[in-house]
Amino acid sequence: MHIDILTVIPELLESPLQHSMMKRAQEKGLLSVQVHPLRKWAVNEYGQVDDYQYGGGAGMVMMCEPLAKAIEELSSSAAFDDIIYLTPDGERLNQKMVNGFSLKKRLLMICGHYKGIDERIRQQYVTREISIGDYVLSGGEIPAAILVDAIGRLLPGVLNDETSALTDSFQDNLLAPPVYTRPVDFKGWKVPDILMSGDHRKIEEWRHEQSLQRTAARRPDLLDE
Fold first, then answer.
1. Of 22, 23, 56, 197, whose Cβ has the fewest other Cβ atoms within 10 Å?
2. pLDDT digits over 100-118, tens only?
C-alpha cells in the first residue's frame, strides 16, 4: 500500500512514521508513506498557501490553487482509491472504516490547518472526510498519523501474529476482554483460574462473555449497532 500525505507542517509526521510498527512496515516494503510539504506548490516565492476568508471572520483558509496543483500532480502517475481530508466535521473514524481503507492500494490524505481548506477542494477532489473525534486540533497531522497507524497494522505481515488484529477492540463491535501475564499472583491479585486451565474452548467462551460485559458497561452503543 502507498499513502501520500499533504501537509503544511511535515515535521509533525516524522516521529510517528519512523518508529515501531510503522517503521517495520515500511522497511519490509509492506507500506510506503510519502509526506509532501504543501508549500512546494505555493502561489508565490514566499511560500503562501493560505489567505483570508471571503465574507470576513477570524482565521486563514488553505487556498485552492496549491491543493489542486498538488492533488493533480500526485494523481498523474496513478489514481488514488480515496482522497481523504482530515477534518473535525467529517465521518467519525471507526474500525470498520479502517478495515476498508486497509484493502486499498493508494490513498492521499490532506491535513487541514488554520480554518480548514477551501470548500471547492472538498467538493471537487475529496472523496472521504474523516474525523477522529468531536474536538478540534491545531491541524490534521496527528489525525493523519493515527489513520496511517490504524491502517498499517492491518496489512498482512506487519504484525508478528496476524490474528492479533482480529481480536482487537471494535473488530466485532465488542471491546476486548481483560488480559493478564506473569506472575500468576501479584500482591494477592490473581489471574482468573479459567485462563490457567488449558481448556481453550472454555477460555474463548470466558473471553467472549467478558467482552460482552465490558461493552455493556462502557460502550452499550456498540451493542445497539
1. 56
2. 999 999 999 999 999 999 9
Beta bridge pairs of residue 185:
190
What are the grid coordinates assigned to 91, written together?
465521518
> E strands of the chain, at which residues?
2-7, 32-37, 50-52, 60-62, 82-92, 106-111, 128-131, 185-186, 189-190
* Radius of gyration for the chain, computed over Cα atoms and rounded to the nearest angstrom: 21
pTM: 0.90
The reported pLDDT for the residue numbered 25 is: 93
CB atoms within 10 A of CB 150: 19
Q: State the pLDDT at residue 70.
A: 98
66-87: buried (b, 16+ CB within 10 Å) or exposed (e) per residue? bbbebbeebeeeeebbebbbbb
- Residue 217 carries which side chain, given as an amino acid letter? A
Q: Is 81 helix (H, G, I), strand (E, B) or coil?
A: coil
**CB within 8 Å of 78: residues ≥ 6 apart:** 106
Residues 6+ apart with CB under 8 A from 193: none
Domains of the chain: 2-152 (3.40.1280.10), 169-224 (1.10.1270.20)
Strand locations in 132-214 (E): 185-186, 189-190
